[in-house]
Design a protein that fits this description.
Elements lengths: L7 H11 L8 E13 L12 E15 L3 E14 L7 E15 L3 E13 L11 E16 L4 E14 L7 E13 L4 E14 L9 E13 L3 E14 L5 E15 L2 E12 L31 E13 L3 E14 L7 E15 L2 E14 L4 E15 L4 E14 L6 E13 L1
Antiparallel strand pairs: 1-2, 1-20, 2-3, 3-4, 4-5, 5-6, 6-7, 7-8, 8-9, 9-10, 10-11, 11-12, 12-13, 13-14, 14-15, 15-16, 16-17, 17-18, 18-19, 19-20
């Protein structure tokens, strides 16, 4: 598997962060590890399961750099999967999420670069086996101008070039240009209202995808409120989409993000939206979520295609932390209606839950589960996925950790041959610095 060169900007950010300067010292953590997996159904087949042993060395990093000139947040993993039984070809896998901001003129002019390297199924209707996976990448870069028009009025202009890429699904590859202008009125130290106009142009590389080229304009008003216990970001407006095909569309644009923190140990988040979108949106992952978007997240089975759709979604997440344990519960609901063709239109809902318990200073137990129900309205097909995981970890030293993990995954589908049950035992050793 090929890892695209676009992620090199993060390496540049790392180098700049580590160079002698007036920058604050970067917080860089990395992990080197190896794991041995025994899987009883590596091909995720209902009737013909195949056992396999997989040896996987890996490297992971997490970077946080906050300085006067350069700010960067990035996380990523690189792993090499060696299928010892030869059931599949060996693979090089990469995940990356990074954002770097170069402050050329403080509070006036910045240059921003973002890169999101991930893995998605080639055909979302088939099992997520190694032969049905591909690397995807979304790279974006451009300038941001800021202006002060008085004590309470702020202006901002963002220009961006974005490139989308899929290793196998070439009709997803595109070049995108966008401009976004915003005026914000400060109501005080905690609140502001804003008005925004955005325009974007999307052009796909493949001739077969040209009918899905589009131009889009959005106009909306926003409200932001931020205190120590409550953060609110809401917007409402309208979108116009000019398609190259025979018709154009327009519709309401709504978004809501809320985070309530009633105590240092507890927080509750709500996010909701009604908007036009395409597959590139699902590939933009926050660095903190790298490797954590499994069954029940609503983000683990994106349809990689050039088609535009109308998305309606709502999600909740509840977190509680104590000295020796923490847990999280996150349900979601999502409805996708494709503008041209209903083949992959879907109605989905599900949830994830995790529980972590440090029952001794060097021993910890981690439990996680997820469930996701997808109804493909245009196909008359329904899939229900579930996953369960239990892990016991032993921190041998401040750097070395052993983990023994057991997993169980299953799919129940109205298409009989699409169902499966899979079990795996994984032993890993990691060094963290």
């Amino acid at each position: 598997m090929r890892i695209t060169h676009r992620g090199l900007f993060v390496a540049g950010a790392l180098a700049a962060a580590g160079a002698p300067s007036l920058q604050a010292e970067p917080a860089l953590e990395y992990t080197v590890g190896v794991e041995l997996e025994q899987n009883d159904n590596i091909n995720l087949s209902r009737d013909n399961p195949v056992e396999e042993t997989v040896l996987t060395p890996s490297f992971a990093f997490d970077l946080k750099q906050q300085g006067a000139v350069l700010s960067a947040t990035a996380a990523g993993t690189v792993s090499y999967r060696d299928y010892l039984g030869g059931k599949f070809s060996d693979e090089l896998r990469g995940l990356l999420s990074g954002v770097a901001t170069w402050s050329i003129s403080p509070d006036r002019f910045d240059w921003v670069a973002e890169d999101y390297l991930g893995r998605q199924p080639i055909n979302v209707l088939q099992a997520d086996v190694p032969s049905n996976q591909q690397q995807t990448n979304v790279f974006s870069s451009g300038p941001t101008w800021r202006a002060r028009f008085g004590d309470n009025l702020r202006g901002r202009l963002d220009l961006r070039y974005t490139n989308t890429y899929a290793e196998e699904t070439n009709d997803f590859n595109s070049d995108r240009f966008s401009a976004a202008g915003r005026l914000a009125w400060l109501l005080g130290a905690l609140d502001n209202v804003s008005g925004s106009l955005t325009a974007s142009r999307v052009r796909y590389d493949e001739l077969a995808s040209r009918p899905f080229d589009y131009d889009r304009e959005d106009a909306y008003i926003g409200y932001e409120h931020a205190t120590n216990t409550l953060k609110l970001d809401a917007a409402a407006g309208y979108s116009w989409v000019d398609l190259r095909g025979p018709e154009s569309r327009s519709g309401t644009l709504l978004s809501l993000g809320l985070r309530w923190t009633p105590s240092p140990a507890t927080d509750l988040g709500v996010n909701a939206a009604r908007q036009f979108a395409d597959a590139s949106q699902d590939l933009v992952i926050d660095p903190a979520s790298i490797g954590n978007l499994g069954v029940g997240s609503g983000r683990n089975g994106s349809v990689i295609s050039p088609q535009l759709y109308v998305e309606k979604r709502i999600g909740l997440d509840f977190n509680h932390r104590e000295e020796t344990y923490n847990f999280n519960v996150a349900p979601f609901w999502r409805k996708i209606d494709y503008i041209e063709g209903e083949f992959f239109s879907q109605h989905a809902f599900g949830w994830t839950a995790t529980f972590n318990w440090l029952f001794r200073p060097t021993f910890a137990l981690a439990l996680s589960t997820g469930r996701e129900h997808r109804d493909y309205t245009g196909l008359g097909r329904t899939d229900t996925d579930a996953s369960y995981s239990m892990a016991l970890s032993w921190r041998q030293t401040s750097h070395w950790t052993w983990v023994l993990r057991g997993t169980h995954a299953l799919r129940d589908s109205t298409l009989r041959e699409a169902g499966y049950s899979d079990n795996a035992i994984i032993l890993s050793l990691t060094y963290t610095r």
